[in-house]
Amino acid sequence: MQFKYLAAFTLGASLAAATGIPASQCNTGPVQCCNSTGTAKDANISKLLGALNINVSDVNALIGVTCNPISVIGVGGNSCTAQPVCCSNNSFHGVVAIGCVPVSL
């Protein structure tokens, strides 16, 4: 069921990925801090998605790997020294997040 919505979200995320968005505009859940990002075309990400049996219809969608939610600027000292992103599908317990857009903190 969750994959039906993935295509619609990833298209929007792909279009916005070129510039990034302010953290305050992330309305799909908390901003995520991912150790790395890439697309399903990337060999390591492709292997990870395959191992998790996740089919990503938009191979150009930005995917975050090993992600944790962070708070928005100014709250409690949380920060992201890796890649802050806003993702439309965070339902994989932080292992991967799909349909991501870079975030400006």
Automatic annotation (TrEMBL):
It holds the Pfam family Hydrophobin. The keyword Secreted applies. One of its GO terms (molecular function) is structural constituent of cell wall. It is found in: Secreted, Cell wall. Keywords: Cell wall, Disulfide bond, Secreted, Signal. InterPro entries: Class_I_Hydrophobin, Class_I_Hydrophobin_CS. GO terms for cellular component: fungal-type cell wall. Its main location: secreted. The keyword Signal applies. Residues 1-18 form the signal peptide. Belongs to the fungal hydrophobin family. This is Hydrophobin. It comes from Crepidotus variabilis.
